Amino acid sequence: MYKRFADIFKTENRILGLDLLRFVAIVLVVMGHSRWIVEATFPNPLKVLLHGSGILGVELFFVLSGYLIGGILLKQFQKNNFSLSFEAIKTFWIRRWLRTLPNYYLILLVYFIVFYMQKPDAMWRYLFFLQNIWNHPPYFFEESWSLCIEEISYLISPLILALSVFIFGKNGKGNDSHFLYVSIGLIVFVTILRLIYSAYYIPNHINEPDFKWSYQFREVALIRLDSIYYGFIAAYIAYKNKEFWVKNKLLLFVIGLLGIIALMIFQKNITDSNTFFFTFLSISIACILPYLSEYKTAKLPFISKPITAVSIISYSLYLINGGLIAENFKRFSNAGEGWNFPQALGVYLLYWFICLTLSTLIFVFFEKPMTDLRNKFK
């Protein structure tokens, strides 16, 4: 059994910098979902760190996913002589779906069973990632709103790329610029949609008692797809202009990190109609990718191995940490009322232990076997 776990969590052939980014992203998300445990008793510096951590964590995942999946699609595009046949698109979809859908539907089934009495009326939407396509999602399986954004991007990106080659290519062939132009075009289109949504929807609903910027704006899929496509552009630059990517990696990292810090400090003050907060945040995150993608190994395995391990289980951890574990902790502990610091710390450590243990088991015995099925489709 130990050997099985050890083999799965090997660090060979992995990029430590990207594992570190994924590690930071999932830790921020879990901290955001569990901040109610510590907010009342923990010191102020930790409270400041917790504020907005979930927002930043999800945005890190979006841009990183765009960079990785965009890179896969770009290589597929190049491999097929700058065209995409339906067979190539189907293979791309199947490989992505075998990576993401089994875990999603497993946890959706768990939600359906555990929260059957609280399930939304249009439960069928969750089967097709339509729960928040042009509306804020119901308060059910709350993590799924971001998966809707990613799955839509996986679905439409190769189709739009193939369509652009069909319309603008020569003799059914394009060039690598098609990938860049499609990515930019999608960013512009989605940003315009967000401006329209901000101008017409928000003014009519902002005074409603249940209006929450996080749900009614941040989690609407069609106005958030651009976060993925900033990662696509980063993948294009890494492929097309490797010299620039490597030469300026440290400068871009500093610019990106400062941008992220500044945006997160001032995100308390963004208005409900500010459509460009996520634009600048995505660009800032994209700027840190050159340095992290080139940071491939570390000399301290006792640091790198835990980072890689948490990175590997991050998808399972993302799906279960909030609604399934944090909310049930809150329900059965009376939301931590009357806790002192040692009690809050003990519950917090227990929460992390349960999250990490369950997500590891899900990964080893379900997610990894399902993902390995992709090897049949290359």
Helical percent range?
A: over 70%
Report the C-alpha radius of gyration, rounded: 21 Å
- How would you classify the helix and strand content by structural class? mainly alpha
Average pLDDT confidence is 87
Q: Report the oligomer.
A: single chain
Describe the sheet with the most strands: none
Counted up, domains total 2
Low-confidence spans: pLDDT under 50, at least 5 residues?
Answer: none
The string of secondary-structure elements, in order, is HHHHHHHHHHHHHHHHH
Overall geometry comes to globular
Please provide the count of β strands: 0
Gap between N and C termini: 30 Å
- Counting H and I runs of at least 4 residues, what is the number of helices? 17
Strand content: under 5%
Protein model, in words:
- The mean pLDDT is 87.
- Helix 6 (86-114) packs parallel to helix 16 and helix 8 runs antiparallel to helix 11.
- The protein is mostly helical.
- The protein has helices at residues 2-8, 16-33, 35-38, 44-50, 53-79, 86-114, 144-168, 176-200, 202-205, 213-218, 226-240, 242-247, 249-266, 277-294, 301-312, 314-332, 341-372.
- It folds into two domains: 1-51 and 306-378, no CATH class; 59-297, no CATH class.
- Helices cover 72% and strands 0% of the residues.
